[in-house]
Amino acid sequence: MIPGIDRNTQLILLWGLAILVLGWTWLPALIAALGGSRFTQGISNEAAGKDLSSPDRDDALWANQLQALGYELIGSGWQRINFASSEWSQYMPLRVFRNEYKNCYAFMQRAPAPFYFWPGAVFATCFADGGLLLSDNNLDAAPNPDDEVIRQGLVTLNLADVEELHLATMAALNRAGRKPDSDLGMETLLQALERVIAPGIKKQNGRAGTQYLFVHGLIHLCASTPLISLLGVGHYSVPIVNLVLGLILGLGESSHKRQYARAVREAIRERNREAAKKTTDDQ
C-alpha cells in the first residue's frame, strides 16, 4: 500500500493512527465513565469595578440589571470541568456581584465553548450552617426548605422578579432559624458552589461518557465486523475504516455543535436586544 514499507509496519502505523484519532474523544469519555471527571474553580485577575455597561457586551443585559438592583462586581473567576464526557475540558468564566445590605450574591456564568454566551444570573446566599440558596432566572422550580442546597427560580428576563423570590425565601428561612453567613467574600461563595456542583458533575459526565462510548463503540463494531469476517482482522481495510469513520463522526459532531451554538448565540443576542429596547422604551 505504501512503497518501501512492509505490510506489517503499514498495518501497525494505520492502527496507531486510528487509535490516536479515536482516543482523542474515547479516552476522556472512558475516564468520565469511570468517575474521573473533576471540577475545579478559581479567582481570575480581572479587576473588580470594571465597566460592564457597554451595550455591545453579551452580558450587558444582566450586568446592568444587577447594578440597578444595587449589586457591585467584586471579582471574576473561572470554573473548569476536566474529562467532560468526550471532551478533555470545559472552561467557563464567572462574574460575581454582591449586595452587602441584602446579604446576597449574584453571579453570571458563561456557557463553555463553542457557545460563548451568558445565559442569565443566579442569586445566591450562603448560610452559617453550610446551606446554600440559589435562585436562577433560567429555572422554573419551587424551593424545598428542607434541602441543604435550595434551588428555585423563574424563567424570566427581569432579574428583579428573581431577586424578589430570592429575598422572600431568605426571609422565610431566617424566621426558621437559618442565618446567612456573615462572610460575604468571593471565596465563601466559590467554596459553597464547589460543594454543590462537584458531586453532580461526576455523575452527569459519567453517564454522558458511558453513553458516548456505547453509541460510538456500537457504530465502529457494526462497521468493522463484516470486514473482519470477510478479510480478517489483519487486513489494512479494518483500521482504515475505523480511522475514516472516526474522522467523519468527530468532524460531523463538531460541525453540528458549532452550527447549533451559532444559532443559540444569535437567538440569545436578539432576545437581549429586544429586552434592552423594551426597558429603554419603558423608561
Kindly list the characteristics that best describe this protein:
8 strands, 283 residues, alpha+beta, eight-stranded mixed β-sheet
Fold and architecture overview:
The structure is a single chain. The protein is α+β, with helices and mostly antiparallel strands. The protein has two domains: 7-33 and 205-282, no CATH class; 39-201, no CATH class. It contains five helices and eight strands, in the order αβαβββββββααα. The protein has an eight-stranded mixed beta sheet, with helices on both faces. Helix 1 runs parallel beside helix 5 and helix 4 (186-231) runs antiparallel to helix 5 (237-282). The longest helix is centred in the last third of the chain and has 46 residues, at 186-231. The radius of gyration is 24 Å and the shape is elongated. The N and C termini lie far apart (73 Å). The mean pLDDT is 87.
Short characterization:
The protein is an alpha+beta fold. The chain has 5 helices and 8 strands; from the N terminus they run H-E-H-E-E-E-E-E-E-E-H-H-H.
